[in-house]
Amino acid sequence: MSNPFNIDQELKKQAKERPAMSNLVRTRIDATLESLPESPSQLNSEQAQRPRRVNKGLRRTAAAAVAAGVLGVTVFASGFVSPAMADSLRNIPLVGSLFSSIEADIGLRTAGNEGLTTPVNSSFAYQDVKFKVLETVYDGTRAAFLVHVTAPNLNQGMYDNGKDIVKLSSGVDNVFLDINGFSPDGGLFYSSAGANEPDTLLFEQVIPTDHKGEFPDQFDAKVKLTLQGLDHEFELTVPFTKSTTDTYKVQPDTVMENDLFTATVTKAEVTPITTRLTAAIGLNGKQTLTAKEKEQLQDIRFAIYDDQGRQLTALSGEGIYEDNQWKWESIYATTARDVKYLVVKPFEVKDDFTEEVKDNQFIQGMEMEIQLQ
């Protein structure tokens, strides 16, 4: 069956009249070409193929798809598309950020979609095992990066450590992050980047509020890790650049109480990627807490909704008792850049604090609205 449209001939014909390519497009194409596999064998190896916390996913990126994406960007940005060519190229994927495909974290997805990520092309190899840092994102609250792993005993995200076959994220051990001699408490979260990118790992570090000074707008992090079954410590150098100054910081000191509890929101910090909330809840009339009362408060968390009623996904949290209160600082994925206010609702945990909260879990009469703009 003959091809009704010969794309090669059309490209050659139209290229003669093509206007100059913009610097933005050229830069994106150059970065993509630089990240392509160095050989067909490397392509075959790479193509073959969450924090230890709440799990969160990525699109498959074979070299052919990436190359087609380069073509797509060049064609559409250059403005020489005929109607027939437009129909033929409509389904070709464009070059984009792998963060755009992370299904369970809308904040990282927004970073990828809105160009808030930084491409990285650095590799760290030992024998026939290779770690390749692909991309980073940093908004002042959390730093995340993607690493593609190539190994002969790794297939579709399943890793043979010599004793058992485990998920790649379970085969990684002893992960440490260091920034100029400072290592944040709580460790570096890591997980699979998703079903479509099984051999890629997503790493995330939440920046502690009281140590933000150790994290300037631009820094290099040293990440050390080991892979089970391999007597070698990998050390990755990961560069970060803060990609957004679009941050809302409020200290509302909003208080709400009912017959039993008093809840307070003392601070909210919102970027297009991450939302950090500091809140507390206490028992009315109690100056000190018994062990049973502490346990009661410890099962209370704070669900957040944006001004469109969408629940923000909870990513991590840390709690501490202060006098008669349970103080909780939690990190959420931001739903949109232009949120005008947040609604905070205390609830009782039934399963996990990231759960989809049911109506009967909310503590009645405790809803608080936090204005951001």
Structural summary, described in words:
The protein is α+β, with helices and mostly antiparallel strands and 373 residues long. The protein folds into two domains: 7-241, no CATH class; 248-371, Immunoglobulin-like (Sandwich), CATH 2.60.40. Helices cover 20% and strands 36% of the residues. The protein has eight helices and 20 strands. It has helices at residues 7-15, 23-35, 40-47, 63-78, 83-89, 106-113, 168-171, 291-298, and strands at residues 118-126, 129-138, 142-150, 154-155, 158-160, 165-167, 172-178, 189-192, 200-206, 218-227, 233-241, 248-250, 254-257, 261-270, 274-283, 300-305, 314-322, 325-333, 341-348, 368-371. The relative contact order is 0.12.
